[in-house]
Design brief:
Layout: E1 5-9, H1 15-25, E2 29-34, H2 37-49, E3 54-58, H3 64-78, E4 83-86, H4 101-129, E5 132-139, H5 150-170, E6 175-182, H6 194-206, E7 215-218
Parallel strand pairs: 1-2, 1-4, 2-3, 4-5, 5-6, 6-7
Length: about 220
């Protein structure tokens, strides 16, 4: 039986909340992970009002021991993770010609390294069951870099490559790996409303084996 536990890493009031609510509607137990414990409690309260089963796990994705501990606690409290949503990101406004290695490194710790470590932590359990879904929040900057957002453009392009590599590696192991690449600014009550984007995450997860897509480019 599929483990009906969805872990959202990088929980926030936009895509994170909408995706969590979408999976919660399908009776997934929700694990919410982010740095700010108070914000997590507020999100959990909103989701519980919708009838969702929710647990919160404060942790910083750039601190691997915290991340390991939090994910092990998710498994202990909720059960095996069937779906991972990696939604964390870090922004550094700078042109590539002026971007320091230190600033780039700080953003990559969230935009790329955190995604890799989180995936590596949940993959073994999925391999043992030969079933699971790893979904990542991508960005249109991976396809069309912005000169004033060089670090985020590099991070999203690197994340897209990571997703492609994991997808090819794990496809025949029963694990679906994909990204929703969002080519626009997320804002409620627009064509980039996070509730609309959340449907694309659910659609990817719901695809039957043999018809899996690695990427959905959301253009509103």
């Amino acid at each position: 039986m599929e483990p009906r536990v969805c872990l959202v890493v990088g929980m926030g009031r936009g895509i994170g909340l909408s995706v969590a609510r979408r999976f919660g509607r399908e009776e997934y137990k929700l694990g919410l992970l982010a740095r700010n414990e108070l914000s997590l409690q507020n999100y959990a309260g909103a989701l519980e009002l919708d009838g969702c089963t929710v647990k919160t796990f404060p942790a910083d994705v750039t601190r691997t021991p915290q991340l390991v501990s939090a994910i092990r606690e998710v498994e202990k409290q909720l059960g095996s993770i069937g779906v991972l949503i990696y939604n964390a990101h870090a922004f550094q406004g700078s042109r590539a010609s002026e971007l320091s290695l230190e600033a780039l490194e700080e953003t990559l710790k969230v935009n790329l390294y955190g995604a890799l470590v989180t995936a590596q932590l949940v993959i073994p359990g999925m391999l043992s069951r030969r079933k699971g879904t790893l979904l990542f929040t991508g960005g249109g900057l991976a396809l069309n870099p912005h000169p004033d957002r060089a670090a985020l453009s590099i991070g999203k392009a690197s994340l897209r490559a990571l997703v492609g590599a994991l997808s090819k590696e794990l496809y025949h192991e029963g694990i679906h790996v994909a990204t929703v690449t969002i080519a626009g600014q997320v804002r409620r009550n627009t064509s980039f409303d996070p509730d609309l984007i959340a449907e694309k995450f659910w659609d990817l997860h719901s695809q039957p084996p043999g018809r899996w897509k690695t990427e959905v480019i959301y253009q509103g």
